[in-house]
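Look at a sample.

——
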Amino acid sequence: MAFSVPGYSPSFKKPPETLRLRRKRVRSLGADLSAGERPEPEPRRAALAAGLPLRPFPAAPAAAGRGGGGPGPAGRNPFARLDNRPRAAAEPLDEPPRGPQQAPGPFSGSNQENDLLREEKFPEGIAVDEFIQTSPGSLSGSDTPPSESTELPADWSIKTRLLFTSPQPFAWADHFKAQEEAEGLVQHCRAAGVTLPRSLQDPKLSTELRCAFQQSLVYWLHPAFPWLTLFPRIGADRRMSGKASPWADDETLQRVLMNDWSVSFTSLYNLLKAKLCPYFYVCTYQFTVLFRAAGLAGSGAATALMSPTTRGVREAMRNEGIEFSLPLIKERGRETRASGTSVGHGEEQAVSDEDEEESFSWLEEMGVRDKIKKPDILSIKLRKEKHEVRTDHRPESVVLVKGANTFMLLNFLINCKSLIAASGPQAGLPPTLLSPIAFRGATMQVLKARSVSVKTQAVSGYRDQFSLEITGPVMPHALHAMTMLLRSSQSGSFSAGLSTHEPTAVFNIRPPADGAPEKGTVREELARCGLHARTLEQLSQAPTLGRSALRSVEVRDYSCSWRS
């Protein structure tokens, strides 16, 4: 008979009662309890009720479990469960169930099984960090095989960090002399292309290499405030919080900053139109815009990609007469119609009035169309808006503007009031302009470079591992220029991990084919845009990465492989 105990809940069950219910549940499912799950002795019951720690049951003798006159109780592994409670029927077993006459496994009464699993995962003599670096897909987080080629594909995303590793030192990238730094800056301003030999015997003594490396680190920025990091702008509120912003509550100062920004923006676009600037970025607190000159990315006209966008921004662009397309949504819509499958979330095509008419044509053939109520214009419009809103703030919302409409987009961005945050740490701050060449009102900036030499554990002991870290807004031309330099300095063998500003990864989509220009024409027309000839050739190719970006690069014997 059950009796009440002061201080305990009426639903409290003592351990023996819990064991009885578990045995009953196991028997009802047709499973056998192991011999180690036996009722608790009376002293242990009292200790459990008092909350005292208990020692595990001693393992059964080997003779009782493996030899003799019958199948004896198998010893339990005291490390399998720290509290030594018996398993419920719903909990997974450590090993497959055995028949009544089958001998227990060789690791049933010890912790050797855990040791064996650990040895299989991390072989002896190999450090964990080395194992992660050498595992397939470890850099990209994907099991897809890497792509291989003699040249890297064009990557139009902005990188925030590059980490190069090589068995050869990067000592040549440290401690520039004043003369070398000055020559590197002059080479950049004069767009002087430097061609290095295939392999350098002693990179540290190569002045050409060090000047060319300094040249590849230069970029141009507007506006520029030394106490603020102006890239990235999306999600930068926490990083800018607490920093001085004298323009936040001063409308006059905000107006001056915006007028100055408009002049710089217009100057950049004029350089782009004259094919003296290959491309540039406009980075706002909500979206990023990439302007590209005609001839780049396989397009014969100037293009602009804007991502991510919202229905409100797209509607405002329509009201200004800007013609644009949503290439990802239209592309998926064509694939869906061809395959007959439904469109995924956020990628539905807006249903036009003509589509509505076609959807009711079969009713007319059956003679029942008059009896079916047709959706009114308002319902159709609401459904269109619902489909369009689902793409907001997603990569699918990327907008493509081409040709003369890019100039209309310029005017739209200059006059758009929502381009600047009205509150928060970025209030009153104009968008960031990033360019590979100089423009009116721009400030020269240099990416930060740091080389490190460490010793890592390997199978044969310790080995030297050299790394070169680049931080800052690394634009497409800088990434290609650095890989060219490292091929010469590191004898064609190095690895790289690339950190991407994710909102810009979608800029690698392929624009619709519209009569791509010839390579010779592009080289002649963009010869003065400030890019190296090989870099220009790479960026003139149609993008192949799609919605992804380069995540890791491996160069061995001058042959490239990469993951995206």
Observations:
- Residues 236 and 285 are 8 Å apart (CA to CA).
- Residues 31-37, 59-73, 81-143, 331-354 have pLDDT under 50 and may be disordered.
- The chain has four domains: 15-29+43-49+81-94, 131-217+447-509+544-563, 218-339+392-446, 349-389.
- Residues 218-339+392-446 form one domain.
